[in-house]
Design brief:
This protein is 29% helix and 19% strand. With 222 residues, the protein is of the alpha+beta class. A hairpin with an 8-residue loop joins strand 2 and strand 3. It has one domain: 3-Layer(aba) Sandwich (NADH Oxidase), CATH 3.40.109.10. The longest helix has 23 residues. The protein is globular.
Length: 222
């Protein structure tokens, strides 16, 4: 297992609930309802909700291994990590999403949301999210094929993944936003110092005041 030693009580691998591929939500309504959310309401996410968000970011959609976000040459340089502190049935910790098996791999135990908020230039509101997704890239996976141009392709890919997560959050009746202001080295050291990756964005996700979003299209996952 990559990363730091984990607490022996933390499962090494968590198989996630299968993602939903259909719902009553309408894409146009979801796009219209998407707004950045920084004021999260109390309450945890369901494990199925986290699973759906991770699948939206980098889940497998085809038997050939194609994913939810397009990737130049199918090189798939992105890694998605979940920094968890408020997910039902999932101990606080840092987990790496494994798209091939739709599973989480434990990286480190403990609630690291406040540390991540400090690394994000002391944006303390981030720690109020139930979970924070960190999207990072291993440059060589794409630049080995496309050279310097591959760096641009990876930024495009990260944008697709981030938007997928934000739209999926709306469909679930959750709040999310994209954070790009942070110390790269500090975030990488918190999330997974054993991997030579470059963080691209953070996606804090949490519950919102339902009275504000009564008209939002959503479906609930149990």
């Amino acid at each position: 297992m990559a990363g730091r030693d984990t607490d022996s009580r933390l499962p090494q691998r968590i198989d996630l609930p299968a993602p939903r591929r259909t719902s009553d939500a309408v894409l146009e309504a979801i796009i219209a309802a998407r707004r950045p959310e920084r004021d999260f309401a109390p309450g945890p996410l369901a494990l199925a909700e986290l699973a759906q968000l991770l699948w939206a970011a980098q889940g497998i959609t085809h038997r050939d291994g194609l994913r939810t976000a397009p990737s130049a040459g199918a090189t798939y340089p992105l890694g998605v990590y979940a920094v968890v502190g408020g997910v039902e049935g999932l101990p606080a910790g840092i987990y790496r999403y494994e798209p091939d098996n739709h599973a989480l791999i434990a990286i480190a135990a403990g609630d690291r949301r406040h540390a991540l908020a400090e690394a994000a230039l002391a944006q303390h509101w981030i720690a109020g999210a139930a979970a924070i997704l960190a999207v990072a890239a291993i440059f060589e996976r794409t630049t080995n094929k496309y050279g310097r141009r591959g760096g641009r392709y990876m930024h495009i890919e990260a944008g697709h993944a981030g938007q997928n997560v934000c739209l999926q959050a709306v469909a679930l009746g959750l709040g999310a936003t994209v954070v790009g202001a942070f110390d790269d080295a500090a975030v990488a050291a918190i999330v997974d110092p054993s991997v030579p990756m470059t963080p691209f964005c953070l996606l804090p996700i949490g519950r919102v005041d339902s009275s504000r979003d009564a008209a939002s299209p959503h479906f609930r996952l149990k």
